[in-house]
Protein: HicB-like antitoxin of toxin-antitoxin system domain-containing protein
Amino acid sequence: MCIMRNKKGNILKYVAFVFQDEDEFTAVVPDISGCIASDDTEEEACEAVLDAVELCLEDEELPRANTLEYFTDEVLNKLGLPLNASKYIVDVEDEGYNSYGAKLLS
Structure:
């Protein structure tokens, strides 16, 4: 995937994994350091991870976005993510001045 930095309007696609963990759902975007959110339902966890993406990227450069194919079973095991996690794409648009907007695509 071609990565451009600090170009207003640039959109990167990050992979989010959502899984049930005991009594809640957890959403993780491995390419964005510290980007994790939990909530009562899968839908709520997906909404919460969008806020987490924006908070984690606040005043930061966009990190490299790996493609879905990068996240093999071996990589998921190394990351401690379940192999049966739901996969979503999070579009992150560079709104300029290191400000980003995120939306979830299923």
Summary: The chain has one domain: 12-105. Residues 12-105 form a domain with the Double Stranded RNA Binding Domain fold (CATH 3.30.160.250).
